[in-house]
Amino acid sequence: MDVLSVIVMLALFLLLLAFIFSAGLMTPVIGRKNLLFVVFIGFIAGCVGGAFLISPVYDEIPEIARSIYLSTSGATETVTADVSTGTDIERLKEDLASQEGVVDVQSEGIVIKTDKFTEERKRIIEDKIAVIDSNITSWKVYTNGTIILQVKRGYNPVNALENLAEWLMYTGGINTRYSTVKLVVEVKPANVDTVVSYLEARDIVVTGVRGPAEEKVAELRRSLPAKSNIVLFCGVLGVLTGLAGVFIDSIMGFFMKIYRKYRGGE
Predict the structure, then answer these.
(1) Could you tell me which residues are beta bridge partners of residue 29?
(2) Which of 20, 79, 145, 233 sits CB 3.0–4.6 Å from 114 for a disulfide?
(3) DSSP string covering 36-47, please?
(4) pTM for the whole structure
(5) Within 13 A of 223's CA, how many CA atoms are on the CB side?
(6) Phi, psi at residue 144, to the nearest 5°?
(7) Over the stretch 37-52, which tens digit does the pLDDT of each residue have?
(8) What are phi and psi of 170, to 5 degrees?
């Protein structure tokens, strides 16, 4: 939602409150016996305005806050993405590194999906991985065919995949079905959305964005009251606005009395 839409919705809600207030002003015409009618109209109109005018704006608060945090934060944010090993990983890293605001690009690990294998084969794989490729620093192997590898910083994980896939096929006839590389991009806060859009435009799945700004937004989301409470608050505000219209003469008289007393004290 753009700024103009927010302004229009807030203006319409204020206009709705003005209508409720004017309904309260009509009590000399309709009679004070209809006070409950004014209260009812104020509550219903306030709730409707809250649901259709304030709620959409309320939903945008985290994104507005996120934009502010990203534009003012000095710490970098981390964008993670899953990239198919069919992609030229090194070329992608070079392209990303050339993007404005990108501080660092690293391939953190690789997830490999193979045919299922036995528990005995699992133990063999775990014992041999370090021998197959010494650049693999850690691994997790599951009998459902999932293998998760971590490689040395700066090492192309596709090389580890090729070495392991070849060994799995030759020693156990295990096919490698697909694999993805986890890419980690350190980005300046102001350029996070641009980098995310760049990755998505290349059909790369962005799995998350984390960092100080995102943590603040998450904390804000947790602290915000439920939307239903906002709608009820708008209903109560409508009631108070209607009552203010009903008792405007008394309210103005009260403030005038205070003002005269204050002026008289001078």
Answers:
(1) none
(2) 145
(3) HHHHHHHHHHHH
(4) 0.70
(5) 9
(6) -80, 0
(7) 888 989 999 999 999 9
(8) -70, -35
